Amino acid sequence: MMDLHSLRQFAVVARLEHLSGAARELRVAQPSLSRTIARLEAELGTPLFDRAGRLRLNDAGRTFLRHVERALGELDAGRRAVAAFADGGLGTVRVASETFLTLTGPLAAFKRDRPDVEVELHQMPAEEMGRRLRAREIDLCVASQPVPGEDLEAVLLLDEPVLLVTAPGHRLAGRASVSVAELADEPFVTTRTGHWQRRLLDRLFASAGLGPPRIVCEGDEPSTTAVLAGAGLGVGLIPAMARRSTTQSPVAWIEVADPACRRVLTLLRAADVPPTGAARLMHAAVTGWDWASGSV
What we know:
By secondary structure, this protein is of the alpha/beta class.
């Protein structure tokens, strides 16, 4: 009979698509895990994985996984809601973002107003946000690039230009604007593949008919881009919002003469369940923040 333990094990195997890796993560014997998956498939009356070569979720498995993640997420949300009720508080809100610097202002204001709410922060790429929202593993996401899905509600927070930053002594410093074509041979400091700055950079070069950008440094934290560019290691793309940072390194800011060189910041949540408790308060705080000027 299908039970919660089996569903949790299936979710890990489905996420990793690797039995031995899932067994290690779950700390169970691989043969036992294989029997659990086989029992689930027998009960459902259909295979959930393709086993020709590497283990892969099939269409039935992907469909089942969506429902399993939602069910497990709802159970976890129920536990947290009951715990918050028992404690007489509003509980915890789980917020994900590609970079936390974007959220510094609204988070600080929220904690000043609601010190009784615990805030969990999770850093992750945009492609992971949709899955984690659907699985109820997080409550809200702030994304700098589109996250597709009709089951997700997106609220526009900010549409802003993205600027080129260089060291103050760079040959382009002092220019009001620069074309993408003029950047063809420049060394770029940027984020890894999948982060929004890297995707934007790749799109700009492709649209201009250029080859891949010349990457001399790539990392996971966008805030280091300005620091490294200011040190003369390369040039980088930084959202206009970053100019307000009091800790920003000395750099030259230059407009990029391409209307597509922009960032669209959105707040995401699962559309089928309205936020409650701490998540509702955080949703209101983030959407009520004046992103253009950096205040409520």
